[in-house]
Write a structure and sequence with these properties.
Radius of gyration: 43 Å
Mean pLDDT: 83
Helix content: 55-70%
Number of helices: 25
Length: about 850
């Protein structure tokens, strides 16, 4: 839990491993998932590293596994054990390679044989259809018309007119072509042969399957009559160009029948062989499916280990692997145990050696999370990963984020629907996690299920405060407003109260009076008042200002804990204190005036209450002669003058003093460095404890002489007073102007709350209210239909669109208005070497 408030304390350690045990030790660290390796060979080409051949072998195995998985398709399911298989030893890679290469060879041979058999089956099937269609053609065209061989338009010789022509014989070519190529094929034949052919074609009734792509093909059978060898050669070339398959077709009917019978016999034999080959192929795939997932995990683990080993150094004796690792100090014992397990598994007798490294490098930031806090930490890290040991905003966002969302989304009904959705996701989270959906929108909602849970609970709470449930109010305790029995010699009745179009709940009206305040939230009678918006606007606007300033002051207070932890006394005196003086003197005083007016002026004297806005403007102008706006309390002028002057003093306090003190420190440091024997830096360094291999504590010095927002890490670096002064000026201007703009930004709480309430009211008035206008059966049906429309629009508009809008505005209030007071977010995340993370990331 400590790492929730600050990131874990990290240690940079040099790890010495024997070459024989390095693989097993890295494997155990990968199972543990608490160590981040530094790449010591960043300047070395990936192809020149020590274990590049092993990585290539792993990639070759991955290629085989992808091939096997693609061959299985969706028909064969992979068996996935509950636990990941153990990391294989290096010598097991040889056995795995042999098994996978043998399996790949057998499967490729089966695929090749099956493809050849299907090609033969396709050709025989085409020949079968061709013989049938040709036979049908010759049978139907036995009695040809007299002018068939004498047509002038066909260009054929008039066979009957000359004895030589009669002796000449027509030849024919029969084949099969794809149906979509038939039209251009026929056109080209006619043009190339100048009409000296006779083409007859017919469509195949049965679609065929491509033996390679397994796509469905539709083909036509054609027969072309021609005369002469020259035309025959042209026709053959055109057939080759259109990839038409030409089959030998005998002229006599008896030969065609004999060939057809033989083709049918061969097709039956081929069907039997194809079935047996496919059965053998399926057997190979089913056998592989039992271990394919485990093989894939093993290969991923081996490849990840060799990638890590490639980032390590090997000494000149080739007997020792040297690595540099970051890890949390509290996990030192677990890391040592993992290394010892790796040593024992490899059979080595030399213990791994851990040696702490003194460095000025900034350590990575590591905040431990669980399934509840992970969503909130993700929100923080989306803005920027925190600096090392910087205060983590996530624990505070767990409460403030859902609450500010609920201020904008406050509605009991909508919050209840959201709560039901969140509880459903949480109660079924195990089954939903196992499904591993690829829908990005769904994964976003599911990963934030606990955030949605808190947002819905707070929305129900604020909905009770606003007394708003689907734009309607609860009358639990009875209204505190009462109508006087007589008014202008008339009687107020329930009919007048509910039907009067100009009725307003004005607190100073002589016609109504208020008893005790409503016990909890807003009085339900405001739901029917004409001046409802006037009342709620004033209430929600002031509430937003109070919450916003309180939120910002809390952020400034959190910055104090950063200054104390990093021992930055200069920042406490010259930054935190003037910041608090500025914001409390001006905006803290504004909150005081709002609360004071609420307590001091009740409904009976509301007309005489002064305007807070006018007072706040006059406070800056030192104008106190406005007779129309009476003071809130006695000695108000003196108090406000003092606060404005004090706030103005805090501006040069922040701006001028710190840069000059830093310059004086730097000059003093330079003078002291000239003196011999002086090695200690006087610039207020931060000591970060790290653990050595024997658990002894040493320190790493990190220079923070320029404060948490800047500075230099090396004493030899030149000190630039201009940069420091400009940086401080920017910070001062940004803070002072930010206090004004950020306070105005919190008014979005009021605006979004008003928009949500009005949308809910419009939806009810325009949809549901129409169904209550009928009192017969038609009204029952109308209510049923309108309720379905109302439910769909409520979910689509008020829950999804308005909910997303409120979420984004709450996100901005935390990223900009809250976190900029104490959170820098310029660090880098701790990315440990973890098999679980690698496998999950690869699956995604």
């Amino acid at each position: 839990m400590v790492s929730m408030f600050r990131s874990e304390e990290m240690c940079l350690t040099q790890l010495f491993l024997q070459v024989e045990s390095a693989y097993c030790c890295v494997a155990e660290l990968g199972e543990l998932g608490l160590v981040q390796f530094r790449d010591l060979n960043a300047n070395v080409n990936s192809f020149q590293r020590k274990f590049v051949n092993e990585v290539r072998r792993c990639e070759s195995l991955e290629r085989i596994l992808r091939f096997l998985e693609s061959e299985m398709g969706d028909d064969i399911l992979l068996l996935k054990p509950e636990k990941y298989p153990e990391t294989p030893l290096p010598r097991e890679m040889i056995d795995l390679e042999a098994v996978l290469e043998k399996l790949e060879g057998e499967l490729e041979e089966a695929n090749k044989n099956l493809q050849a058999l299907r090609q033969n089956f396709l050709e025989l099937t085409e020949l079968k259809h061709l013989l049938k269609k040709t036979q049908d053609f010759f049978e139907t065209e036995t009695n040809l018309p007299d002018d068939f061989f004498n047509e002038d338009t066909s260009g054929l010789l008039e066979l009957r007119s000359s004895p030589a022509a009669v002796a000449a014989k027509l030849g024919f070519i029969a084949g099969v072509i794809k149906r979509e190529r038939m039209v251009p094929f026929e056109r080209l034949l006619w043009r190339a042969c100048r009409g000296n052919i006779y083409l007859k074609f017919s469509e195949m009734d049965t679609p065929l399957e491509d033996p390679i792509t397994k796509e469905e093909m539709k083909k036509n059978v054609f027969i072309i009559f021609y005369q002469g060898e020259q035309l025959r050669q042209k026709i053959k070339k055109i057939c080759e160009g259109f990839r038409a398959t030409v089959y030998p077709c005998p002229e006599s009917a008896g030969e065609r029948r004999e060939i057809a019978a033989g083709v049918n016999t061969r097709i039956e034999d081929l069907n039997t062989v194809i079935t047996q080959t496919e059965s053998h192929r399926q057997g190979l795939l089913k056998e592989a499916s039992a271990n394919l997932w485990s093989w894939g995990i093993k290969v991923k683990k081996m490849k990840a280990i060799y990638h890590i080993l490639n980032s390590c150094n090997i000494d000149v004796t080739q007997q020792c692997v040297i690595a540099e690792i970051w890890f949390p100090v509290v996990d030192t014992i677990n890391i040592k145990r993992a290394l010892n397990r790796g040593m024992e598994r490899s059979g080595s007798t030399i213990n791994p050696i851990l040696t702490a490294i003194h460095t000025k490098m900034s350590p990575p930031t590591f905040n431990r999370t669980n399934k509840f806090t992970a969503g909130f930490q993700t929100i923080v890290n989306s803005y920027g990963v925190g600096n090392y040991r910087e205060l983590n905003p996530a624990p505070y966002i767990i409460i403030t984020f859902p609450f500010l969302f609920a201020v904008m989304f406050g509605d009991c009904g909508h919050g209840t629907v959201m709560l039901a959705f969140a509880l459903w996701m949480i109660s079924n989270e195990k089954s939903l996690l196992a499904q591993k959906s690829d829908n990005e929108i769904w994964n976003t909602f599911f990963s934030g299920r606990y955030l949605i849970l808190l947002m819905s609970i707070f929305s129900i709470y604020t909905g009770f405060i606003y007394n708003d449930c689907f734009s309607k109010s609860f009358n639990i305790f009875g209204s505190s407003w009462r109508v006087r029995p007589m008014y202008n010699n008339g009687v107020w009745t329930d009919e007048i109260v509910h039907n009067a179009g100009i009725l307003q709940l004005n607190p100073v009206s002589p016609g109504v009076y208020s008893g005790n305040p409503y016990p909890f939230g807003i009085d339900p009678i405001w739901n029917i008042a004409n001046n409802k918006l006037t009342f709620l606007n004033s209430y929600k606007m002031k509430m937003s200002v109070v919450m916003g300033i309180s939120h910002m002051v809390f952020g400034v207070v959190l910055s104090l804990f950063n200054h104390i932890y990093f021992k930055q006394t200069i920042n406490i005196i010259l930054q935190f204190i003037p910041e608090m003086i500025f914001i409390l003197s001006l905006f803290g005083y504004l909150v005081f005036m709002i609360i004071f007016k609420w307590c001091q002026y009740d409904a009976t004297v509301a007309q005489d209450a002064p305007s807070i806005l006018i007072h706040f403007i006059n406070m800056f102008l030192f104008s106190y002669n406005d007779k129309t706006n009476l003071p809130l309390y006695e000695h108000q002028q003196e108090v406000q003058t003092f606060l404005v002057i004090f706030a103005l003093i805090s501006i040069p306090w922040m701006l001028l003093i710190k840069p000059f003190i830093l310059r004086a420190r730097h000059q003093r440091a330079q003078r002291m460095l000239v003196s011999p024997g002086l090695s200690e830096s006087p610039t207020g360094d931060i000591e970060v404890e790290i653990i050595e291999s024997n658990c002894s504590k040493k320190t790493v010095q990190e220079d923070h002489s320029a404060g948490e927002h800047g500075g230099h890490n090396d004493h030899e670096e030149e000190f630039n007073f201009g940069d420091i002064f400009v940086h401080q000026a920017i910070h001062t201007i940004e803070y002072c102007l930010g206090c004004i703009s950020n306070t105005a930004s919190y008014l979005r709480l009021w605006a979004l709350s008003l928009a949500h309430a009005q949308l809910s009211e419009v939806l009810w008035g325009q949809v549901m209210i129409n169904g209550f206008q009928f009192s017969n059966r038609i009204g029952l049906i109308a209510v049923f239909i309108l309720f379905a429309i109302f439910a769909v629009l409520t979910v689509a508009i008020l829950l999804i669109m308005e909910g997303l809008s409120a979420f984004l505005h709450a996100l901005r209030l935390h990223w900009v208005e809250f976190q900029n007071k104490f959170y820098i977010g310029s660090g880098y995340a701790f990315t440990p070497f973890s098999f679980k993370a690698i496998i999950e990331r690869t699956d995604e």
